[in-house]
Amino acid sequence: MKILISGATDFIRSILVSSFSNKFEIAVLGRDMEHLKRRFPQHYAVDWKGVKAESVMNYQIVINLCGENIADKRWTSEQKQKFYKAV
């Protein structure tokens, strides 16, 4: 099974990659290819710029971790409204 993992959350992404890597073929998607290749040398790195809808269809599972870090700021009323609007 092929899994594509995207997003800038290195902590969560690295846990997922290490958990799945023994059983599945993993590709990591990001903007900084050099960072991805250093961080995940044994997995296929995919650049955001080269992604087309057809290429994503080659994966059975796509895990998208892109977005704003919800733990980065105080949960003010304004910040909560931004979360609600994103959903």
Q: Would you give an account of this structure?
A:
The protein has helices at 10-20, 33-39, 53-56, 77-86, and strands at 2-6, 25-30, 44-47, 61-64. A 4-stranded parallel sheet has the order 3-2-1-4, with helices on one face. The protein has a single domain (2-86), classed as 3-Layer(aba) Sandwich (Rossmann fold), CATH 3.40.50. By secondary structure, the chain is of the alpha/beta class.
CATH topology heading: Rossmann fold
Structural class: alpha/beta
The helix-strand sequence is: EHEHEHEH
Percentage of residues in DSSP E strands: 15-25%
- In order across it, which strands form the biggest sheet? 3-2-1-4
- pLDDT below 50 for ≥5 consecutive residues: which ranges? none
Domain module count: 1
Give the strand tally: 4
Please tell me the overall pLDDT: 79
Rg from C-alpha positions? 15 Å
Q: Could you name the CATH class?
A: Alpha Beta
- Give the distance, in angstroms, between the N- and C-terminal Cα atoms: 29 Å
Total DSSP helices:
4
Under the CATH scheme, which architecture would be assigned?
3-Layer(aba) Sandwich
Note the main sheet. 4 strands, parallel
Helical percent range?
Answer: 25-40%
* Inertia-based shape: globular
Nutshell version of this structure?
Strands 3-2-1-4 form a 4-stranded parallel β-sheet, with helices on one face.
Keywords for this structure?
globular, 22% strand, Rossmann fold, four-stranded parallel sheet, 4 strands, alpha/beta, 87 residues
Element layout with pairings:
Layout: E1 2-6, H1 10-20, E2 25-30, H2 33-39, E3 44-47, H3 53-56, E4 61-64, H4 77-86
Parallel strand pairs: 1-2, 1-4, 2-3
